[in-house]
Write a structure and sequence with these properties.
Layout: E1 2-6, E2 15-20, E3 23-28, E4 41-50, E5 55-59, E6 65-69, H1 75-80, E7 91-98, E8 107-109, E9 114-115, E10 119-122, E11 128-130, H2 137-154, E12 157-160, H3 169-192, E13 197-200, H4 206-213, E14 220-223, H5 227-235, E15 240-243, H6 248-251, H7 254-261, E16 265-267, E17 272-278, E18 282-289, H8 297-320, E19 324-329, H9 336-349, E20 357-362, E21 368-372, H10 379-383, H11 399-411, E22 419-423, H12 434-441, E23 444-448, E24 458-462
Parallel strand pairs: 1-14, 6-8, 11-12, 14-15, 18-19, 22-23
Antiparallel strand pairs: 1-2, 2-3, 4-5, 4-7, 4-13, 5-6, 7-8, 9-10, 10-12, 16-17, 17-18, 19-21, 20-21, 22-24
Helix pairs in contact: 4-5, 8-9
Bound molecules: zinc ion.
Zinc ion binds at residues 387, 389-390, 394.
Protein backbone atom coordinates (compact mmCIF):
# COMPACT_ATOMS: atom_id res chain seq x y z
CA UNK A 1 0.00 0.00 0.00
CA UNK A 2 1.25 3.45 -0.95
CA UNK A 3 0.61 6.53 1.18
CA UNK A 4 0.76 9.94 -0.50
CA UNK A 5 1.07 13.10 1.58
CA UNK A 6 0.62 16.44 -0.07
CA UNK A 7 1.10 19.91 1.30
CA UNK A 8 0.21 22.50 -1.30
CA UNK A 9 2.01 25.82 -1.15
CA UNK A 10 0.19 28.34 0.99
CA UNK A 11 -1.77 25.68 2.84
CA UNK A 12 -1.06 24.62 6.39
CA UNK A 13 -2.92 21.40 5.99
CA UNK A 14 -1.54 18.09 4.82
CA UNK A 15 -3.77 16.00 2.60
CA UNK A 16 -3.44 12.24 2.40
CA UNK A 17 -4.33 9.46 0.01
CA UNK A 18 -3.94 5.69 0.33
CA UNK A 19 -3.42 3.69 -2.86
CA UNK A 20 -3.43 -0.04 -3.38
CA UNK A 21 -2.62 -1.38 -6.85
CA UNK A 22 -3.02 2.19 -8.08
CA UNK A 23 -6.58 2.24 -6.80
CA UNK A 24 -7.84 4.77 -4.23
CA UNK A 25 -8.48 3.23 -0.85
CA UNK A 26 -8.93 6.28 1.33
CA UNK A 27 -8.63 10.04 1.02
CA UNK A 28 -8.27 12.89 3.46
CA UNK A 29 -8.59 16.31 1.90
CA UNK A 30 -8.43 18.48 4.98
CA UNK A 31 -11.08 20.10 7.07
CA UNK A 32 -11.55 23.18 4.87
CA UNK A 33 -12.41 26.77 5.80
CA UNK A 34 -14.40 26.49 8.99
CA UNK A 35 -11.84 25.49 11.51
CA UNK A 36 -13.04 23.80 14.62
CA UNK A 37 -11.40 24.64 17.93
CA UNK A 38 -13.32 22.00 19.87
CA UNK A 39 -10.78 19.67 21.45
CA UNK A 40 -8.01 22.24 21.24
CA UNK A 41 -5.89 22.69 24.35
CA UNK A 42 -4.85 26.18 25.43
CA UNK A 43 -2.82 27.98 28.03
CA UNK A 44 -5.50 30.40 29.22
CA UNK A 45 -5.42 33.27 31.69
CA UNK A 46 -8.03 33.55 34.42
CA UNK A 47 -9.62 36.96 33.82
CA UNK A 48 -12.31 37.04 36.44
CA UNK A 49 -14.10 34.82 38.91
CA UNK A 50 -17.89 35.09 38.90
CA UNK A 51 -18.93 33.75 42.34
CA UNK A 52 -22.65 33.99 41.56
CA UNK A 53 -22.22 31.59 38.64
CA UNK A 54 -19.52 29.52 40.36
CA UNK A 55 -17.50 30.05 37.24
CA UNK A 56 -14.56 31.94 35.81
CA UNK A 57 -13.86 33.71 32.55
CA UNK A 58 -10.63 32.57 30.97
CA UNK A 59 -8.92 34.43 28.16
CA UNK A 60 -7.70 32.22 25.30
CA UNK A 61 -4.94 32.90 22.77
CA UNK A 62 -7.48 33.78 20.06
CA UNK A 63 -8.78 36.62 22.28
CA UNK A 64 -12.00 34.84 23.18
CA UNK A 65 -13.33 34.84 26.73
CA UNK A 66 -14.15 31.28 27.59
CA UNK A 67 -16.46 30.02 30.33
CA UNK A 68 -15.15 27.60 32.97
CA UNK A 69 -17.22 26.07 35.77
CA UNK A 70 -15.35 25.92 39.07
CA UNK A 71 -16.78 22.52 39.99
CA UNK A 72 -15.06 21.26 36.85
CA UNK A 73 -11.64 21.77 38.43
CA UNK A 74 -10.63 18.56 40.18
CA UNK A 75 -8.13 18.03 42.96
CA UNK A 76 -6.05 15.80 40.69
CA UNK A 77 -5.62 18.74 38.38
CA UNK A 78 -4.46 21.13 41.11
CA UNK A 79 -2.12 18.50 42.53
CA UNK A 80 -0.58 17.77 39.16
CA UNK A 81 0.51 21.38 38.73
CA UNK A 82 1.11 21.92 42.49
CA UNK A 83 -1.47 24.70 42.64
CA UNK A 84 -2.79 25.58 46.10
CA UNK A 85 -5.39 28.13 45.07
CA UNK A 86 -6.39 29.54 41.71
CA UNK A 87 -6.18 33.31 41.36
CA UNK A 88 -7.18 35.93 38.85
CA UNK A 89 -4.38 36.60 36.39
CA UNK A 90 -3.03 33.08 36.76
CA UNK A 91 -2.39 30.79 33.79
CA UNK A 92 -4.50 27.68 33.45
CA UNK A 93 -4.47 24.63 31.15
CA UNK A 94 -7.84 24.17 29.48
CA UNK A 95 -9.51 22.32 26.65
CA UNK A 96 -12.39 23.62 24.55
CA UNK A 97 -15.52 21.56 25.16
CA UNK A 98 -17.93 23.55 23.03
CA UNK A 99 -17.17 26.24 20.49
CA UNK A 100 -18.61 29.72 20.81
CA UNK A 101 -22.13 30.14 19.47
CA UNK A 102 -23.27 33.65 18.55
CA UNK A 103 -22.07 35.98 21.31
CA UNK A 104 -21.70 33.14 23.81
CA UNK A 105 -18.04 32.36 24.35
CA UNK A 106 -16.56 28.86 24.19
CA UNK A 107 -17.06 26.45 27.07
CA UNK A 108 -13.86 25.00 28.45
CA UNK A 109 -12.83 22.32 30.87
CA UNK A 110 -9.76 21.38 32.83
CA UNK A 111 -10.60 17.71 32.51
CA UNK A 112 -8.29 17.28 29.53
CA UNK A 113 -8.89 14.42 27.11
CA UNK A 114 -6.52 13.57 24.28
CA UNK A 115 -8.26 11.61 21.61
CA UNK A 116 -6.80 9.03 19.27
CA UNK A 117 -8.63 6.79 16.89
CA UNK A 118 -9.31 3.97 19.33
CA UNK A 119 -8.98 5.66 22.69
CA UNK A 120 -9.14 8.92 24.59
CA UNK A 121 -6.73 9.38 27.47
CA UNK A 122 -7.78 11.43 30.49
CA UNK A 123 -4.69 12.55 32.45
CA UNK A 124 -6.75 13.95 35.36
CA UNK A 125 -9.16 11.10 35.76
CA UNK A 126 -8.98 7.51 36.97
CA UNK A 127 -12.04 6.18 35.24
CA UNK A 128 -12.23 3.53 32.52
CA UNK A 129 -15.02 3.87 30.01
CA UNK A 130 -15.97 1.49 27.20
CA UNK A 131 -18.06 2.80 24.33
CA UNK A 132 -21.70 1.88 24.83
CA UNK A 133 -21.88 0.98 21.17
CA UNK A 134 -19.73 -2.07 21.81
CA UNK A 135 -22.42 -4.61 22.64
CA UNK A 136 -20.57 -7.92 22.58
CA UNK A 137 -19.87 -8.95 26.19
CA UNK A 138 -16.62 -10.73 25.32
CA UNK A 139 -15.32 -7.61 23.60
CA UNK A 140 -16.32 -5.45 26.56
CA UNK A 141 -14.55 -7.75 29.00
CA UNK A 142 -11.40 -7.93 26.88
CA UNK A 143 -11.26 -4.15 26.42
CA UNK A 144 -11.92 -3.52 30.10
CA UNK A 145 -8.85 -5.62 30.94
CA UNK A 146 -6.78 -3.61 28.48
CA UNK A 147 -8.17 -0.39 29.99
CA UNK A 148 -7.18 -1.49 33.49
CA UNK A 149 -3.66 -2.39 32.39
CA UNK A 150 -3.23 0.99 30.71
CA UNK A 151 -4.59 2.88 33.72
CA UNK A 152 -2.15 1.01 35.92
CA UNK A 153 0.80 1.68 33.62
CA UNK A 154 0.26 5.40 33.03
CA UNK A 155 -1.88 6.45 35.98
CA UNK A 156 -4.53 7.94 33.73
CA UNK A 157 -8.20 7.47 32.92
CA UNK A 158 -9.12 6.04 29.56
CA UNK A 159 -12.09 5.83 27.23
CA UNK A 160 -12.16 2.97 24.73
CA UNK A 161 -13.89 3.98 21.52
CA UNK A 162 -16.15 1.84 19.35
CA UNK A 163 -13.63 1.03 16.62
CA UNK A 164 -11.28 -0.45 19.24
CA UNK A 165 -13.41 -3.60 19.26
CA UNK A 166 -12.31 -4.40 15.73
CA UNK A 167 -8.56 -3.94 15.93
CA UNK A 168 -5.62 -5.73 17.47
CA UNK A 169 -4.59 -5.02 21.05
CA UNK A 170 -1.12 -3.90 19.97
CA UNK A 171 -2.65 -1.00 18.10
CA UNK A 172 -4.45 0.14 21.24
CA UNK A 173 -1.31 -0.07 23.36
CA UNK A 174 0.71 1.73 20.70
CA UNK A 175 -1.84 4.49 20.39
CA UNK A 176 -2.03 5.12 24.13
CA UNK A 177 1.76 5.26 24.23
CA UNK A 178 1.68 7.97 21.54
CA UNK A 179 -1.12 9.87 23.23
CA UNK A 180 0.72 9.75 26.52
CA UNK A 181 3.90 11.12 24.91
CA UNK A 182 1.78 13.85 23.43
CA UNK A 183 0.30 14.65 26.84
CA UNK A 184 3.76 14.84 28.44
CA UNK A 185 4.78 17.36 25.79
CA UNK A 186 1.64 19.45 26.37
CA UNK A 187 2.19 19.48 30.14
CA UNK A 188 5.85 20.44 29.65
CA UNK A 189 4.93 23.27 27.30
CA UNK A 190 2.25 24.50 29.67
CA UNK A 191 4.73 24.73 32.52
CA UNK A 192 7.06 26.79 30.32
CA UNK A 193 4.37 29.14 28.98
CA UNK A 194 3.73 32.58 30.39
CA UNK A 195 1.07 33.92 28.04
CA UNK A 196 -2.18 32.54 26.56
CA UNK A 197 -1.23 30.15 23.80
CA UNK A 198 -2.60 27.30 21.71
CA UNK A 199 -0.79 24.13 22.77
CA UNK A 200 -2.57 21.39 20.90
CA UNK A 201 -5.00 21.04 18.06
CA UNK A 202 -6.05 17.57 17.11
CA UNK A 203 -7.60 17.96 13.70
CA UNK A 204 -4.98 19.48 11.45
CA UNK A 205 -1.67 18.52 12.90
CA UNK A 206 0.49 16.65 10.43
CA UNK A 207 1.24 14.12 13.08
CA UNK A 208 -2.42 13.33 13.55
CA UNK A 209 -2.92 12.70 9.84
CA UNK A 210 0.24 10.67 9.43
CA UNK A 211 -0.60 8.53 12.43
CA UNK A 212 -4.14 7.96 11.15
CA UNK A 213 -2.97 6.92 7.70
CA UNK A 214 0.19 5.03 8.47
CA UNK A 215 -1.40 1.61 8.52
CA UNK A 216 0.55 -1.57 8.93
CA UNK A 217 0.07 -2.39 5.23
CA UNK A 218 1.77 0.82 4.06
CA UNK A 219 5.14 -0.03 2.51
CA UNK A 220 6.02 3.29 0.92
CA UNK A 221 5.27 6.97 1.52
CA UNK A 222 5.69 9.81 -0.97
CA UNK A 223 5.51 13.37 0.36
CA UNK A 224 6.55 16.87 -0.67
CA UNK A 225 7.32 18.06 2.83
CA UNK A 226 10.74 17.27 4.29
CA UNK A 227 9.34 17.70 7.82
CA UNK A 228 7.13 14.67 7.38
CA UNK A 229 10.11 12.33 7.35
CA UNK A 230 10.85 12.92 11.01
CA UNK A 231 7.22 12.49 12.03
CA UNK A 232 6.95 9.24 10.05
CA UNK A 233 10.06 7.87 11.74
CA UNK A 234 8.45 8.36 15.14
CA UNK A 235 5.88 5.75 14.18
CA UNK A 236 7.72 3.54 11.74
CA UNK A 237 11.43 2.98 11.18
CA UNK A 238 11.23 0.70 8.16
CA UNK A 239 8.73 2.21 5.74
CA UNK A 240 10.28 3.73 2.59
CA UNK A 241 9.96 7.52 2.54
CA UNK A 242 10.46 9.53 -0.65
CA UNK A 243 10.41 13.31 -0.60
CA UNK A 244 9.71 14.83 -4.01
CA UNK A 245 9.37 18.38 -5.33
CA UNK A 246 6.07 19.67 -6.60
CA UNK A 247 2.54 18.47 -6.12
CA UNK A 248 2.34 14.81 -5.10
CA UNK A 249 -1.32 14.45 -6.04
CA UNK A 250 -0.61 15.81 -9.50
CA UNK A 251 2.27 13.37 -9.97
CA UNK A 252 -0.03 10.44 -9.18
CA UNK A 253 -3.10 11.80 -11.07
CA UNK A 254 -5.21 11.84 -7.92
CA UNK A 255 -7.67 14.42 -9.27
CA UNK A 256 -8.45 12.13 -12.19
CA UNK A 257 -9.00 9.20 -9.84
CA UNK A 258 -11.32 11.28 -7.68
CA UNK A 259 -13.30 12.27 -10.76
CA UNK A 260 -13.74 8.57 -11.55
CA UNK A 261 -15.11 7.90 -8.08
CA UNK A 262 -17.56 10.80 -8.36
CA UNK A 263 -19.14 9.48 -11.55
CA UNK A 264 -22.80 8.50 -11.53
CA UNK A 265 -22.16 5.31 -13.49
CA UNK A 266 -19.19 3.17 -12.50
CA UNK A 267 -18.13 0.20 -14.59
CA UNK A 268 -17.17 -3.06 -12.92
CA UNK A 269 -14.46 -5.38 -14.28
CA UNK A 270 -16.86 -8.27 -15.00
CA UNK A 271 -19.08 -6.13 -17.19
CA UNK A 272 -21.53 -4.97 -14.55
CA UNK A 273 -22.15 -1.41 -13.56
CA UNK A 274 -23.31 0.51 -10.53
CA UNK A 275 -25.37 3.69 -10.70
CA UNK A 276 -25.25 6.06 -7.74
CA UNK A 277 -28.10 8.51 -7.22
CA UNK A 278 -28.30 10.87 -4.31
CA UNK A 279 -31.58 12.29 -3.15
CA UNK A 280 -32.18 14.66 -0.24
CA UNK A 281 -33.12 11.75 1.99
CA UNK A 282 -30.82 8.93 0.94
CA UNK A 283 -28.39 7.48 -1.55
CA UNK A 284 -29.79 4.88 -3.91
CA UNK A 285 -27.39 2.52 -5.65
CA UNK A 286 -28.43 0.30 -8.49
CA UNK A 287 -26.39 -2.70 -9.64
CA UNK A 288 -26.82 -3.78 -13.27
CA UNK A 289 -25.33 -6.45 -15.46
CA UNK A 290 -25.00 -4.31 -18.55
CA UNK A 291 -25.52 -7.19 -20.98
CA UNK A 292 -28.12 -9.86 -20.47
CA UNK A 293 -26.93 -13.39 -20.92
CA UNK A 294 -29.76 -15.89 -21.14
CA UNK A 295 -27.83 -18.95 -20.13
CA UNK A 296 -27.30 -21.10 -17.12
CA UNK A 297 -24.15 -19.19 -16.39
CA UNK A 298 -26.25 -16.05 -16.05
CA UNK A 299 -27.08 -16.72 -12.43
CA UNK A 300 -23.43 -17.43 -11.66
CA UNK A 301 -22.27 -14.26 -13.40
CA UNK A 302 -24.93 -12.19 -11.60
CA UNK A 303 -23.67 -13.50 -8.29
CA UNK A 304 -20.11 -12.57 -9.15
CA UNK A 305 -21.11 -9.12 -10.33
CA UNK A 306 -23.07 -8.60 -7.11
CA UNK A 307 -20.05 -9.45 -4.99
CA UNK A 308 -17.82 -7.21 -7.07
CA UNK A 309 -20.42 -4.44 -6.71
CA UNK A 310 -20.68 -4.94 -2.94
CA UNK A 311 -16.94 -4.29 -2.58
CA UNK A 312 -16.97 -1.31 -4.91
CA UNK A 313 -20.00 0.21 -3.16
CA UNK A 314 -18.24 0.09 0.22
CA UNK A 315 -15.21 1.75 -1.38
CA UNK A 316 -17.37 4.47 -2.92
CA UNK A 317 -19.24 5.18 0.32
CA UNK A 318 -15.91 5.54 2.09
CA UNK A 319 -14.17 7.62 -0.58
CA UNK A 320 -17.10 9.88 -1.34
CA UNK A 321 -17.80 10.09 2.38
CA UNK A 322 -21.47 9.50 1.76
CA UNK A 323 -23.57 9.76 4.90
CA UNK A 324 -27.10 8.80 5.86
CA UNK A 325 -29.34 6.06 4.53
CA UNK A 326 -28.01 3.93 1.69
CA UNK A 327 -30.23 1.57 -0.29
CA UNK A 328 -28.68 -0.92 -2.73
CA UNK A 329 -30.61 -2.74 -5.41
CA UNK A 330 -28.47 -5.74 -6.39
CA UNK A 331 -29.12 -7.86 -9.47
CA UNK A 332 -31.97 -10.27 -8.74
CA UNK A 333 -30.86 -13.75 -7.87
CA UNK A 334 -32.79 -16.89 -7.23
CA UNK A 335 -30.34 -18.30 -4.73
CA UNK A 336 -30.89 -17.09 -1.18
CA UNK A 337 -27.24 -17.95 -0.45
CA UNK A 338 -26.01 -15.10 -2.60
CA UNK A 339 -27.64 -12.59 -0.27
CA UNK A 340 -25.75 -14.06 2.63
CA UNK A 341 -22.53 -13.83 0.64
CA UNK A 342 -23.25 -10.19 -0.16
CA UNK A 343 -23.88 -9.41 3.51
CA UNK A 344 -20.65 -11.15 4.46
CA UNK A 345 -18.67 -9.18 1.87
CA UNK A 346 -20.18 -5.87 2.97
CA UNK A 347 -19.48 -6.63 6.63
CA UNK A 348 -15.82 -7.33 5.86
CA UNK A 349 -15.41 -4.31 3.62
CA UNK A 350 -16.92 -1.78 6.04
CA UNK A 351 -14.21 -2.63 8.54
CA UNK A 352 -11.95 -0.49 6.34
CA UNK A 353 -14.24 2.45 7.05
CA UNK A 354 -13.32 4.90 9.79
CA UNK A 355 -16.93 5.88 10.12
CA UNK A 356 -19.62 3.78 11.64
CA UNK A 357 -21.73 1.84 9.17
CA UNK A 358 -24.89 0.03 10.30
CA UNK A 359 -26.12 -2.80 8.12
CA UNK A 360 -29.82 -3.49 8.48
CA UNK A 361 -29.96 -6.34 5.97
CA UNK A 362 -32.38 -6.90 3.10
CA UNK A 363 -35.85 -5.36 3.06
CA UNK A 364 -39.03 -7.15 1.90
CA UNK A 365 -38.34 -6.00 -1.62
CA UNK A 366 -34.82 -7.40 -1.51
CA UNK A 367 -33.01 -4.07 -1.15
CA UNK A 368 -29.95 -3.88 1.07
CA UNK A 369 -30.41 -1.20 3.68
CA UNK A 370 -27.57 0.50 5.52
CA UNK A 371 -26.70 3.78 7.18
CA UNK A 372 -23.34 5.48 7.37
CA UNK A 373 -22.42 8.09 9.96
CA UNK A 374 -20.28 11.02 9.05
CA UNK A 375 -19.22 14.33 10.54
CA UNK A 376 -17.44 16.06 7.69
CA UNK A 377 -18.58 17.03 4.22
CA UNK A 378 -18.97 14.43 1.52
CA UNK A 379 -16.73 14.50 -1.52
CA UNK A 380 -19.79 15.33 -3.61
CA UNK A 381 -20.46 18.40 -1.49
CA UNK A 382 -16.83 19.47 -1.75
CA UNK A 383 -16.36 18.96 -5.47
CA UNK A 384 -19.78 19.43 -7.01
CA UNK A 385 -22.81 21.63 -6.78
CA UNK A 386 -26.31 21.37 -8.19
CA UNK A 387 -26.27 21.49 -11.99
CA UNK A 388 -27.53 24.93 -13.07
CA UNK A 389 -28.84 23.55 -16.37
CA UNK A 390 -31.09 20.74 -15.17
CA UNK A 391 -31.49 22.16 -11.65
CA UNK A 392 -30.32 18.92 -10.12
CA UNK A 393 -32.98 16.76 -11.73
CA UNK A 394 -30.42 15.15 -14.00
CA UNK A 395 -32.79 15.46 -16.97
CA UNK A 396 -33.26 18.04 -19.71
CA UNK A 397 -36.07 18.57 -22.22
CA UNK A 398 -36.41 16.11 -25.06
CA UNK A 399 -34.84 17.77 -28.16
CA UNK A 400 -38.06 17.11 -30.11
CA UNK A 401 -40.00 19.26 -27.63
CA UNK A 402 -37.46 22.07 -27.95
CA UNK A 403 -37.57 21.88 -31.77
CA UNK A 404 -41.40 22.09 -31.70
CA UNK A 405 -41.16 25.26 -29.60
CA UNK A 406 -38.50 26.63 -31.91
CA UNK A 407 -40.62 26.02 -34.98
CA UNK A 408 -43.63 27.77 -33.44
CA UNK A 409 -41.51 30.80 -32.68
CA UNK A 410 -39.84 30.99 -36.10
CA UNK A 411 -43.26 30.86 -37.75
CA UNK A 412 -44.00 34.27 -36.21
CA UNK A 413 -41.18 35.73 -38.26
CA UNK A 414 -41.00 39.53 -38.70
CA UNK A 415 -42.32 40.63 -42.14
CA UNK A 416 -39.06 41.86 -43.65
CA UNK A 417 -36.80 39.12 -42.25
CA UNK A 418 -34.59 37.41 -44.81
CA UNK A 419 -32.41 35.24 -42.63
CA UNK A 420 -32.62 33.57 -39.29
CA UNK A 421 -29.72 32.54 -37.07
CA UNK A 422 -30.53 29.76 -34.62
CA UNK A 423 -28.24 28.69 -31.80
CA UNK A 424 -28.69 25.26 -30.24
CA UNK A 425 -26.85 22.89 -27.94
CA UNK A 426 -24.44 20.51 -29.80
CA UNK A 427 -26.70 17.61 -28.83
CA UNK A 428 -29.21 18.83 -31.49
CA UNK A 429 -26.90 18.01 -34.41
CA UNK A 430 -28.63 14.67 -34.92
CA UNK A 431 -32.12 16.14 -34.75
CA UNK A 432 -31.87 19.06 -37.17
CA UNK A 433 -32.23 18.83 -40.94
CA UNK A 434 -31.24 22.24 -42.27
CA UNK A 435 -32.80 21.79 -45.71
CA UNK A 436 -36.11 20.81 -44.16
CA UNK A 437 -36.00 23.91 -41.95
CA UNK A 438 -35.35 26.16 -44.96
CA UNK A 439 -38.46 24.83 -46.66
CA UNK A 440 -40.47 25.04 -43.47
CA UNK A 441 -39.48 28.63 -42.64
CA UNK A 442 -39.36 29.84 -46.24
CA UNK A 443 -36.17 31.74 -45.40
CA UNK A 444 -32.40 31.34 -45.18
CA UNK A 445 -31.47 29.41 -42.01
CA UNK A 446 -28.13 29.37 -40.18
CA UNK A 447 -27.70 26.94 -37.33
CA UNK A 448 -24.85 27.16 -34.80
CA UNK A 449 -24.37 24.51 -32.17
CA UNK A 450 -22.90 26.81 -29.57
CA UNK A 451 -25.80 27.23 -27.14
CA UNK A 452 -24.98 25.82 -23.70
CA UNK A 453 -28.47 24.96 -22.44
CA UNK A 454 -30.18 22.00 -24.16
CA UNK A 455 -33.55 23.13 -22.73
CA UNK A 456 -33.60 26.36 -24.77
CA UNK A 457 -32.45 28.00 -28.03
CA UNK A 458 -31.49 31.46 -29.31
CA UNK A 459 -33.00 33.15 -32.34
CA UNK A 460 -31.74 36.24 -34.20
CA UNK A 461 -33.37 37.68 -37.33
CA UNK A 462 -31.55 39.45 -40.12
CA UNK A 463 -33.49 41.98 -42.12
ZN1 LIG B 1 -27.69 18.70 -15.06
Amino acid sequence: MLLLLNKSSGSRETKAVLLENNQLIEVYLGEEEEESIAGSIYVGKIEKFIPALEAAFVKLANGENAFLRMKDIKVDYLDFFSIKKLQEGQKILVQVKKESVGNKGPQITTNIGIAGRYTVILPFSKSIGISRKILNEDDRGRLKTIGRALKEKYGIGIIIRTVAAEISEELIYKEVENLYDKWKEIAKNFKKSRKPKLLYKESDSDEFIIREFLRAEVTEIVTNDENHREIIRKFNQKVIVKVIHGDVFETFSIDEKLREVLKRRIQLPLGGEIVVDRTEAMTVIDVNSSHYIATESHEKLSEEINLEAAKEICRILRLRNIGGIVIVDFIDMKDEKNREQILKTVKTEILKDRNRVEIYGFTHLGLLEMARKRTSKSLDERFTHICPICDGRGRVLNPKVVIERLKREVEKKPPKAKEVIIKLHPEFKDFIDKEELKVFFKTEVHVHYTHIDPNTYEIAWKI
